Structure prediction request, 387 residues.
Amino acid sequence: MKILVTGGAGFIGSNFVQYWVKHHPQDQITVIDKLTYAGNLENLGLVKDKIKFIKGDIINPEIVDQAMSGQDIVVHFAAETHVDRSINDPFIFSRSNVLGTHTLLEAARKHNIQRFHHISTDEVFGELDLDDPNKFNELTSYKPNSPYSSSKAASDHLVRAYGHTYNLPYTISNCSNNFGPFHHPEKFIPRSIIRLLNGQNIRLYNPGDQIRDWLHVEDHCSAIEAILLRGQIGQTYCIGGMTNEISNTNVAKLIIKLLGLTPDRIEMVTDRPGHDKKYTVDWSKIKRELGWEPKHNFEDWLRQTITWYVNNKSWWEHTAQESESFYIKNGEAVLNNTTAQISKTNLETFTTSSTEMIKKDHNQATPDYIIETKIPGVLIIERPTLP
Prediction:
């Protein structure tokens, strides 16, 4: 089988490519990616010799036509996805997410693609009140609130329109918030981990009680696999990763706990415009019809994610600096009386099977603190910054 993966150098796309190559080595994968700030060829380093890569913009019909030729299936990840950036520059989101999807659909129709699978988001459904017991499902009405979610809603409608009008064989999945390896440092979970590793506080949009459903990217990939192999043409599947609700504040506290740090490492910042309160997803349809469910619980996946960021500083260091600059440029401000009263520190992380050896070899004459994390084999040395 020949599969074209759009946005395959981004976070979810690259994880899917790695997953598919591992589990379906007989298939031929072609990746098309524009390599914007969120696309990174390093994400595909482990499989670069097993795939074909095309650098190109999905809004370019000539490049898309060439990439689509001879393919059996299209898995469409390519999209601008950061809500904050959509508020700052919404036109880019309309261009990529709406016009880009439209260009792909035209090419898919021309080349008689066997299945066009469109990756979408639960944010197209709008928001729930914090005390609302309901969850988003496949029959929930669309009510997007941000330029990002509006552009994704438009792309969903286009896909369904091509299915209805031109009999294009399609499936759609609306997923919840993803996390895991190669997640861009601008997003909440990786940014929180990285700031702590850099001796800074986690920053939360005030008041921090927003609720999200969290889906590990590997679970997302296995869900897409189930849809591609067993999903019914013309159907939509909601994909979530949790059964219990968790607020952003409690996610931050859990990251802090897993890193063995003190619970006062959180500061509130000014909220973004139109911030949705709550997303929760009912993923019973994909479980019932396709037999899919998450592999691990949230805390186990979060522990693995933290370990990945501890071990891959060279991947995120430069990108994290750019992301922090974006937030500063766009007016992120710490609210009065919310900054944890801590001295700025440097954190050194060690991956080791022998905690006692690190303790013995470490110079105890310096005023450092050895932190035994909840991550197996990971030790942190916290060192106050000298004046």
